[in-house]
Write a structure and sequence with these properties.
With 341 residues, this protein is of the alpha/beta class. It has a single domain, classed as L-arginine/glycine Amidinotransferase, Chain A. 25% of the residues lie in helices and 21% in strands. It contains ten helices and 15 strands. The strands form five sheets. It has a three-stranded mixed sheet. The radius of gyration is 19 Å and the shape is globular. Keywords: Transferase. InterPro entries: Amdntrnsf_FN0238. One of its GO terms (molecular function) is transferase activity. This is Amidinotransferase.
């Protein structure tokens, strides 16, 4: 694991995936299911895409914890980064969600796995702010620079500046909020569709930031430590080029290796020059997930990174007493029947 990029992630294997009708109003990236495609067909296609992402990440050495979700009332559960984030030093945050039908995506079994497999000291739960109409949808609403300790955040229904400041005070980040809109003047619903911050490279649609001075401040803050900034166009953002995430693995000889996970659609939208800049520091891992992208999110939204130290294998393990580990994902009732590659 590096300061910026986790080497382990959580994925939710949502068996009843469907684009969420409650989020369509303010998510300009959401699209309708193709005419004539059944609910069962949509769910089956999405499930195959989830499994393909897990396999691709394992192939490059990322540890993948998969939790199954059979609940048809949680259409967006495939996007766990909106309710959960983890942080170096043993800190975990749980967030308030804007759409009422997303609030029961929060899962005690996920938190229990983290506490059993990793060193967790403190869980900060902000979900009690929901009745007050105050929301901060995790690393969807914020894009975090863990090295320079900056939280980039586009203002929207999903990101309240007051709770952003509270999070930053609690976790030691500098808040950098801004207004960002598309060419029709529609606010960007989640910052992570327009921005990705890696160790040595960042992808950012700076032209979507309304205020010119703030745009320049963000540009300078991103590059202050020599990080290269790949500036995305609005068209590339609509292809989910900003919805990528840098992960860290090891080569067979023990050297650190960075990968940039994104969708195949996002990868196709990049120019050769942009790809060359990214590949100076990262290997691009691209997976085709067109069904999941109908919900208005892409690969970054599907990944909750684990920025925590592992517990030694000699310590008690949450899965140790469970029969059948390394055969099936975590089940909805919290039994850890296996996961990682």
């Amino acid at each position: 694991m590096s300061a910026q990029s986790p080497s382990a992630v959580i994925l939710i294997r949502a068996l009843r995936f469907v684009p969420n009708p409650e989020t369509a109003a303010d998510n300009a990236f959401q699209a309708d299911v193709p005419r004539g495609q059944s609910v069962d067909d949509t769910a089956a296609r999405a499930l195959g895409e989830m499994d393909a992402l897990a396999a691709a990440l394992r192939e490059v050495g990322v540890t993948v914890h998969v939790f199954e979700d059979e609940d048809h009332t949680r259409p967006d559960s495939v996007f766990p980064n909106n309710w959960l984030s983890t942080h170096a030093g043993g800190y975990v945050a749980v967030y308030p969600m804007y759409a009422s039908n997303r609030r029961h995506e929060r899962r005690a079994d996920v938190l229990e796995m983290l506490k059993s497999r990793y060193r967790v000291q403190t869980i900060m739960d902000y979900s009690g702010l929901e009745p007050d109409g105050i929301f901060l949808e995790g690393t969807g609403a914020m894009v975090l620079d863990h090295v320079s300790r900056v939280a980039y955040a586009a203002r929207s229904h999903r990101m309240d500046s007051h709770v952003l400041e509270r999070f930053c005070t609690d976790f030691g980040y500098e808040p950098m909020a801004f207004d960002a809109v598309d060419s029709d003047g529609v606010p960007v619903y989640h910052t992570n569709v327009m921005a990705c911050v890696g160790t040595d490279v960042a992808l950012f649609a700076l032209d979507m930031i309304v205020d010119e001075q703030r745009r320049q401040e963000v540009r300078e803050r991103l590059s202050v430590n020599g990080r290269r900034v790949v500036e995305l166009t609005e068209e590339q953002v609509r292809e989910f080029a900003g919805n990528a995430v840098e992960l860290c693995t090891r080569t067979p000889d023990g050297r650190r290796r960075y990968v940039m996970a994104m969708s195949a659609r996002a990868r196709r939208s990049l120019t050769q020059e942009q790809v060359a800049v990214i590949e100076e520091s990262c290997e691009i891992v691209a997976v085709d997930i067109p069904t999941i992208e109908l919900a208005g999110g892409s690969v970054r939204c599907m990944i909750a990174g684990i920025h925590l130290d592992r517990r030694p294998s000699t310590e008690p393990d949450f899965s140790a007493a469970v029969e059948g580990i390394d055969e099936h994902p975590h089940t909805a009732d919290g039994r850890d029947r296996a996961e990682e590659g």
